[in-house]
Amino acid sequence: MKFSRRLQKLLKYSLEKCPLTFPLMESKRLSKAERRISNWENAGRKGRPPEPVKHRNLLEIARKNGLKLLIETGTYHADTLYALRNEFEELHSVELSDDYYSLSRFRLSGYPHIHLHHGDSAIVLPRIVEALQRPALFWLDAHYGIYRDHGAAEGVTYAPVLQELGHIFSKGGAVRHCVAIDDAHYFGSDKNYPTIDEVEKFFTDKNISVMIRNDKELDCLSIIPQSAATP
Hints:
Layout (H helix, E strand, L loop, with lengths): L2 H15 L4 H21 L8 H14 L4 E5 L5 H5 L6 E6 L2 H10 L6 E5 L2 H10 L6 E4 L20 H8 L9 E5 L13 H10 L4 E6 L4 E6 L6
Parallel strand pairs: 1-2, 1-4, 2-3, 4-5
Antiparallel strand pairs: 5-7, 6-7
Helix pairs in contact: 1-2, 1-5, 6-7
C-alpha cells in the first residue's frame, strides 16, 4: 500500500477513535452515506450501488431472518464492519492483505465484539464456522482486485465463492445460515466466478433447500434457507 494512503487512513481512524472528534467524524460519515444513497436513487438506481445501500440490504436480510451474527470475507478498509458495528451482537471478518488487516485492526480495536481474522478465507473460514453456536449472515466479498491503494493480496483462488459455500454449509442444511454475495454481475460473465447454475447445483447436490435471488439492482446474490425465509 502507498505510504501516503496508509497515513491518510491512520489519521482518519485516529479521529474516529478520539472522543473529542468522534461526533464530527460520525456525523460526516452518516451524511456522506445518505448523500450517496440519495444520489443513486435520484439517478434511477442505475450503475453499481454504493456501499451504504449494500449495508442497508445486509441489515434487512439479518432482521428478516433474526440473525445477530455477521461474518464477512474480504474486510478491505472495514467500512462494512464499522457501519454495522452497532447492528449485530457479534461480527467476524477475514482479510488476506497484510495492509488491510493491520489498518482494520487499528480502526476496530475499541470494539471487543468485532473479530478480525488474518488469512485466506478459503482456509480460515472453516475454523470460524466450526466454532459457531448459532446461525449467521455471511457476506462474501473476498476476491483479488487492483485497487488504487495497491493494498490487495491474491489468495489461492481469485474468488473462492464455491469453496466458501462449501465451508458454510459443511453440515448440510442443519444450520440455517443466510448468505449474501457481492458483485453478482460477475457470475456467468467472469471466468473466475461460478455461474448461478453452478451455485444452484451446489445446493441441489447437497439436498439443501434454499431460495436464491439474483438482485441485479443491488448487485447481490442472496441465499436464504427456505425454512428461514420470511414473507
